[in-house]
Amino acid sequence: MSKVKYYLYARKSTDDEDHQIMSIEAQLFELREYARREGLEIIEEITENKTAKKPGREKFAAMVAKIEKSNGVGILAWHPDRLARNSIDGGRVVYLVDTGKITALRFPTFWFETTPQGKFMLSIAFGQSKYYIDNLSENVKRGLRQKVRRGDAPIKAPLGYFNDLRSKTIEPNRQTFKRMKSVFEDFATGEYSLTRIQDKMFSLGFAGKTGKPLTLSTIQWILTNPFYYGMFVYHGELFQGNHRPMISKKLFDQVQITLADNGKPRKEKITKDFTFRHFLVCGECGYSIIAEQKIKESGLRYVYYRCSHKSPKQRCGQRYYLPENDLAEQIKRLVQKVSLTESERDFCLSVAADWEKENQQPSNEMDQTLKAELSALKAKIDRLSDAYLEGAFEIDEYKEKKNILVNQKRDIEEKMADFRANGNRWLELIKNLILDANQAQNWASSGNFAEMRNFLKKHGSNRKILDCRLAVEFNPPWNLIANRGEIRPNQSPAEGGARREFFTYQVMRPQPESNRCYVDENRAS
Fold first, then answer.
1. Whether the predicted pLDDT of 361 surpasses 60
2. Cα separation of 135 and 141, whole Å?
3. SS3 for 228-243, per residue?
4. Closest Cα partner for 413 from 375, 374, 380, 377?
5. Which residues sit opposite 213 in a β-bridge?
6. Which helix (H) or strand (E) holds 439?
7. Which terminus of the chain is more exposed, N or C, with fewer CB under 10 A?
8. Residue 449 CB neighbours (<10 A)
9. Contact between residue 226 and residue 238 where contact means Cβ atoms under 8 Å apart
10. Averaged confidence pLDDT in the chain
11. Mean pLDDT, residues 46-60
12. Are 122 and 107 in contact (CB under 8 A)?
């Protein structure tokens, strides 16, 4: 009978790099000594740095393939769990023993013989190894769930943060935190597309592993990651985090609006100087308003704006060509609608000064209101959780509803924090609003259409053209100014209106006359 030859197999048992090396070195030393003492002939040493929790180890599979082609060999390993911790690999080893491809298994820490009793004990050892790894997995999952409930995100720290291994928390990175915050602030202005913000991030030192700029998909993931305003997602569910937020929820929401508005990279064949490019959508089909230019024989340049007619679902009926001058005039009138003249500015500032004198002591009314709203939201979240536990919702529906409520809760918490930190800072905000409204008047008077466009992008939404008429929905509180009438110095605020919006006292200004519009008769037909 020929002497059995052995494959020596050593595998790591931990994911920590230092322990990986020591574990394999220790196994090799012990196994070589064991082979020398027992007189075993080693035909090949195989080491592997992969977990045996699931099938897929390349070197183990290659060893099994060689064994299947042999006439009978043995395996030398430290313990059966080095060979398998899953049912598939364990079953393959037992089957190779049954078919005689493996004639001997030797372990310094485990007895085995190719008898029914020996194979039974080997199967038990493999089963124990699988039970150990399964139980360990459940313990890890339970620990992660507890960590999530405490508000500690069990994730790799995103850009601007780092994983503190000592405290096992995620902390701001002093070198990149402020730079990453500036990325959100700049993108929220609406002046950056994804490609432009990609260039900016690269200039700030944010690059991929290869040293190249971050991909656009990675940047989009960063800009939509709730971690930056103090939340985190775990298995599709939103949780309040204990980490320091980089930005406010308000700024994050503005970034999402900007991302939906101009976040997609655009490929432009020819760059032309169109003032209102990528600024408006069609009021009928919702697709972009595009600009076209025509050069007359005289050399004069005419610019027109029209619907792009790219909707695949409906045939848009808007067949006009709106001259840029007419569009500019409508934009000017819209900006003037929310602007303040010099006299209106002075009057409003004097009213704000009077209010400041009347409100030296901070009011608890707003704080109590926000507390009530927060308490009501917490009760809703509790009721939703109870309903889910009782089987009233599927898991996906529960997560969707809970995420909405958690975001609303975050908004109110930020409002409470701002109110307690700033007190009557609303008066300062009103003063800034008055000055900004007066600045808008200056832009309209000087014909600075680039600034007027940026102003409407920042303070207006749903910017569209329908039947040659421009429409913009102003965001609060600019909508209050838009709905005011003329403010005269002899007016006074309504009684008891220290916090009352003082832009709503008069009737609305007359609506502008209809605008000129050139219809493309060929398209209309």
1. no
2. 10
3. HHCEEEECCEEEECCC
4. 374
5. 207
6. helix 425-446
7. N
8. 18
9. yes
10. 79
11. 85
12. no
Residue 509: band (very low, low, confident or very high) from pLDDT cuts 50, 70, 90: very low
Instruction: Give the burial string for 74-98 (b: 16+ CB within 10 Å, else e).
Output: bbbbbebbbbbbbeebbebbbebbe
Q: Which of the four pLDDT bands, split at 50, 70 and 90, describes residue 242?
A: confident
Q: Judge whether residue 106 has pLDDT over 60.
A: yes
CB-CB contact of 45 with 28 (8 Å): yes
Non-local CB neighbours of 261 within 8 Å, separated by 6+ positions? 190, 457
C-alpha dist (Å) from residue 210 to 213, 214, 215: 9, 9, 11
Please tell me the distance from the alpha carbon of residue 375 to that of residue 336, in angstroms, as a whole number: 42
- Treating both helix axes as pointing N-terminal to C-terminal, what angle do 324-337 and 449-459 enclose, rounded to 10 degrees? 60
What pLDDT is stored for residue 517 in this prediction? 54
Amino acid identity for residue 183 in this structure? V
**Cβ–Cβ < 8 Å for 38, 6:** no
Q: What is the pLDDT of residue 22?
A: 47
Query: Largest Cα–Cα distance of the chain, in whole Å?
Result: 118
Rounded to the nearest 10°, the torsion over CA 383, 384, 387, 388 is: -150
Lowest-confidence region among 37-46, 49-58, 98-107: 49-58
The pairing of strands 5-11 and 73-76 is parallel
